[in-house]
């Protein structure tokens, strides 16, 4: 899998911009899920365990000011990055969660 960069802006304030880079696309998608879970924990500090479903994760992604995944692509000996937006991210996370679920006994 290809090197992937996550570009994230949580609010309209440009100071909320950040980025993370990952060895591959799956690690990036798992990172987005961790960011969502950290956000949930901050919003529910007294809860011992937190449950959510895919719609909650999708709502979180939709509420972000901006999110983009840049996926490395080899093209004619050059390394280029292909930008992917919210819809791609949501579909890719869904597919990742299905793969993870299907691997469990």
From TrEMBL:
The family this protein is said to belong to: Belongs to the E(R) family.
Membrane-crossing segments per the record: none
Source species, domain of life: Eukaryota
A Pfam family assignment: ER
SUPFAM superfamilies xrefs: ERH-like
Name the UniProt record assigns to this protein: Enhancer of rudimentary-like protein
Organism, scientific name: Hypsibius exemplaris
